[in-house]
Design a protein that fits this description.
This protein is of the alpha/beta class. Among the domains are: 2-82, 2-Layer Sandwich (Gyrase A, domain 2), CATH 3.30.1360; 161-246, no CATH class; 379-553, Isoleucyl-tRNA Synthetase, Domain 1, CATH 1.10.730.10. The protein has 21 helices and 13 strands. The protein starts with a helix and ends in an 8-residue tail after the last helix. The mean pLDDT is 93. The structure holds arginine. InterPro entries: Arg-tRNA-ligase (IPR001278), Arg-tRNA-synth_N (IPR005148), Arg-tRNA-synth_N_sf (IPR036695), ArgRS_core (IPR035684), DALR_anticod-bd (IPR008909), Rossmann-like_a/b/a_fold (IPR014729), tRNAsynth_Ia_anticodon-bd (IPR009080).
C-alpha cells in the first residue's frame, strides 16, 4: 500500500514523502465501511495547494488499484479495501514465521539514542513523576530498539547539591546508622524535614550546612564518606523498585558525575563570549523569548543547567548520539528549551537532536498531588497494592493456577505500567488503584487475559506450529477485523516511534484484544472442520502480536492467568 501510494503521490506534485512517512500516516478506520485502511490527505493540502477532498479524488485516479478489492475517495480520505483472502494468507504466515521479530525494522541502523529517564533524587522518595519517566523511557527504548536503534538508558540521579550539606548536619545531630540502613529513604527524608522545621529559628544550622557542603566539594573524607553512603543506600531502595518493574539502566551517571567536568563548560562559554555578569552571577542571555540561563551563582556554585550542559557534551562525545531524549515532566519545559538554546549558541549543530519528551501530571481525585494536603501516592503502596488486587482476582477466577505468586506480580505490575502508558503522555491522569487492575475495560490485565485465553485455546487444541497450513476460504467480518490489525502492526510501531508515544501501542493492543474477544464470542474455534488449522493459526498469530505489543510497553504476558 505504501508503494502504491508513493507512486501515486509522485504524480500529484513535488511531494517529498518517503514510504516510511506514508506508513506513519495510514489509519485503520473505526468503521469498516470506511475501508480497511485509510489514507488522510489533510497534511498534504498546504504543499499541493489543493483542498484535501480534491487531493483524495485526484489521487484515486492515479493509483494502481489492481492489488486491492476496491479503492475509493471519501471526503478527505482515500479508503482501501483489501483482498481478504490473499492478505489473510500472507499476514498469518508472516506473523507465525517471524514470531516476535514481526514488525522489526533496520531503519535505525544501530545509531545510538540516549534516553535520560527516571532520574530520582537521592535521599528523597521516588515520586509518581519519576515512575512515569521510568516506564515511558523504558517503552520508548524498547520501541526504538525494535526499529534497529541502539538505546542508551541513563539514570541522571539527583545526587549533588546544597541539600547534602543540610542532610549531613541533620544526620549528625538526629540520625542513626541503624535507622538509615533499615529504611534509608524514609529516615533521610525525616532528618531533612526536621532540619527545615528548625532552621528558621536556628539560622546557625544553615551556616553549618554550608560548611558541610563546602567540605564535600573539597573532598573532605568524612563528608565524602557520608555522601557515598547516603547515595548507595538510596540507590539500593530505588533498585528494588526498578527490579519490581523489570527495568534496568545502562548508566547511573548522575549530577555528581559531572563535578570535574564543570570547569570545561564554563570555560567554553567564556571563550565563545557567551557569559555575562548579572548581579555577581554568570548567565547566558537567551533573548526575549526565554529567561537567561543561570550558569554560576555569585558564590561560585554551578547549577542544574550547568550540569546538564556538561552531561550533554559528555554524552555527545561518548555515544555520538543520533538523538538525545529527556523523559521529564512538562513542568521542566523551559529548562530544556534553555539547554537546547545554550548548546545552539555554542555552535553545536547536534543541539537540534535534543528532544524533551514531556509528560503530564498524575492527579488524585482530579487534584494535584500534595504532601501538605495529604494527597500523596506512595510508589511502593501502588505496586504492592496492585499485586495484591491482582492476586485476589486470580484467586477468584483461576484458583488452581500453579504459579499464582509470579503471575500476580506480572499482572499487578503490568497493570500499573499499562495504565500509565495507555494515555497520551502529555495528558494528566487520575490515579485510582481499583481501576488499574480490572480484568475488563481498557486495562493491562484485560490485554494479558486475552493473550492467556488465546494461549489456552492453543493448548486445548494441542497446536503444533508445523501443522500450519493456511487455506482461508470464507473470511467473515470478525476474522477480518483481526487480520487488519495484525497486518498494521509494523506501521503502528513506526507511528509510536516517530511520536515517541507508547500509548499508540497500548491503544492498538486494546483494539486487537477487543477484536479477538469479539471473534471468539462468534466463532467456534475448536470445531474439527477443514478450516480448523487456519483458525488456530489465526489464534497463534494473535498471541504473538499481543505478547510483542505488551513487551514493547515493558509488560509481561503470562501464558495462563
Ligand atoms: N537531565 C535531567 N535534567 N534529567 C531529569 C532530572 C530530574 C530531576 N532529578 C528531578 O527529579 O526533577
Amino acid at each position: 500500500m505504501q508503494q502504491t501510494l508513493s507512486a501515486g503521490l509522485l504524480t500529484l506534485g513535488d511531494l517529498n514523502l518517503s514510504e516510511t512517512q506514508i506508513a506513519q500516516m495510514i489509519e485503520v478506520p473505526k468503521d469498516s465501511k470506511m475501508g480497511d485502511f485509510a489514507f488522510p490527505t489533510f497534511q498534504l493540502a498546504k504543499q499541493l495547494h489543493q483542498a484535501p477532498v480534491q487531493i483524495a479524488q485526484n489521487l484515486v485516479k492515479q493509483l494502481d488499484t489492481s492489488a486491492f478489492a476496491q479503492v475509493q475517495a471519501q471526503g478527505p480520505y482515500v479508503n482501501f479495501f483489501l483482498q481478504r483472502n490473499s492478505i489473510a494468507k500472507t499476514t498469518i504466515t508472516q506473523v507465525i514465521e517471524q514470531g516476535s521479530d514481526f514488525g522489526n525494522h533496520t531503519i535505525g541502523q544501530q545509531a545510538n539514542v540516549v534516553i535520560d529517564m527516571s532520574s530520582p533524587n537521592i535521599a528523597k522518595p521516588m515520586s509518581m513523576g519519576h515512575l512515569r519517566s521510568t516506564v515511558i523511557g523504558n517503552s520508548i527504548a524498547l520501541i526504538l530498539n525494535k526499529l534497529g536503534y541502539q538505546p542508551v538508558k541513563i539514570n541522571h540521579l539527583g545526587d549533588w547539591g546544597t541539600q547534602f550539606g543540610k542532610l549531613m548536619v541533620a544526620y549528625k545531630k538526629w540520625g542513626s546508622e541503624e535507622e538509615v540502613k533499615q529504611d534509608p529513604i524514609t529516615n533521610l527524608q525525616k532528618y531533612y524535614v526536621k532540619f527545615h522545621q528548625l532552621d528558621k529559628e536556628h539560622p546557625e544550622l544553615d551556616d553549618e550546612a554550608r560548611e558541610w557542603f563546602k567540605k564535600l566539594e573539597n573532598g573532605d573524607e568524612e563528608a565524602t564518606y557520608l555522601w557515598k553512603w547516603f547515595r548507595s543506600e538510596s540507590l539500593k531502595a530505588f533498585m528494588k523498585v526498578y527490579d519490581e518493574l523489570g527495568i534496568s539502566f545502562d548508566s547511573y551517571n548522575g549530577e555528581a558525575f559531572y563535578n570535574d567536568k564543570m570547569d570545561e563548560v564554563v570555560d567554553l562559554l567564556a571563550q565563545k563570549g557567551l557569559l555575562q555578569e548579572s548581579q555577581g552571577a554568570e548567565i547566558v542571555d537567551l533573548g526575549p523569548d526565554l529567561p537567561p540561563a543561570l550558569i554560576k551563582k555569585s558564590d561560585g556554585a554551578t547549577l542544574y543547567i550547568t550540569r546538564d550542559l556538561a552531561a550533554a557534551l559528555y554524552r555527545q562525545r561518548t555515544y555520538h548520539f543520533k538523538k538525545a531524549l529527556y523523559v521529564v515532566g512538562s513542568e521542566q519545559s523551559v529548562h530544556f528549551e534553555q539547554l537546547k538554546a545554550v548548546l545552539a549558541k555554542m555552535g553545536y549543530d547536534w543541539a537540534q537532536d535534543i528532544e524533551h519528551i514531556k509528560f503530564g501530571l498524575i492527579t488524585s481525585e482530579g487534584k494535584k498531588l500534595s504532601t501538605r494536603a495529604g494527597r500523596v501516592i506512595l510508589l511502593e503502596n501502588v505496586l504492592h497494592g496492585s499485586v495484591k488486587l491482582a492476586r485476589n482476582q486470580i484467586d477468584e477466577k483461576n484458583p488452581t493456577l500453579a504459579n499464582k505468586e509470579e503471575v500476580a506480580h506480572e499482572v499487578g505490575v503490568g497493570a500499573v505500567i499499562f495504565h500509565d502508558l495507555k494515555n497520551n503522555r502529555t495528558d494528566n491522569f487520575d490515579f485510582n488503584l481499583d481501576e488499574v487492575v480490572r480484568f475488563e475495560g481498557e486495562t493491562g490485565p484485560y490485554v494479558q487475559y486475552t493473550h492467556a485465553r488465546a494461549m489456552s485455546i492453543l493448548r486445548k487444541a494441542d497446536y503444533q506450529e508445523t501443522k500450519t497450513d493456511i487455506t482461508p476460504d470464507q473470511i467473515d467480518d470478525q476474522t477480518w477485523e483481526i487480520l487488519k490489525f495484525l497486518a498494521n502492526f509494523p506501521n503502528i510501531i513506526q507511528q509510536a516511534a516517530l511520536q515517541r508515544e507508547p500509548s499508540v501501542i497500548a491503544k492498538y493492543a486494546l483494539r486487537l484484544a477487543k477484536a479477538f474477544n469479539h471473534y471468539y464470542a462468534h466463532t467456534k474455534v475448536l470445531v474439527a472442520d477443514e478450516q480448523l488449522s487456519t483458525r488456530l493459526a489465526l489464534v497463534k498469530a494473535v498471541t504473538i502480536v499481543l505478547k510483542e505489543s505488551l513487551r514493547l510497553l515493558g509488560v509481561q504476558a503470562p501464558d495462563e492467568m
